[in-house]
Fold this sequence. Notes:
Helices cover 31% and strands 23% of the residues.
Amino acid sequence: MCDICNGMSVEDADARTDQCIRDYGRQVLFIEPDRFSQPYAYTIGLSLVGHPEFLVRGLDYAHSVYMLNGLSAAVLENNEVFAHGHNCQWNRQTLLYFAKITQGIKHEAPWAYSRYGPSMGLLEVLFVGRDLPFDAISARNN
């Protein structure tokens, strides 16, 4: 469960986010599923270096954090840049595709949006073969 759901005040949760960003350059926020939606997670902090935040859906907590920390590290430590339409290999067997979210960013990533506002970018990480058919990217390879 999230910190606020576990009783932490908004101020304390915000201070924890600040500390994570200072220490690691980002925080990964995991949203528990309810009976109408799947779990998802997104980053907070990449906007500070001019990169869109990442969002991934349908993974459990551990896999969400692992993936988003790995992608964030590529940005923060290796100066990699991901943008709409890019793809990359993940774990030698999974192809990822990045799609820019243009509508509803405030709803999709509210904690990040409250910090960075409408100038914030958000990239959804899609799994080719699960979320997107393989032939949808055959014309565009990085």
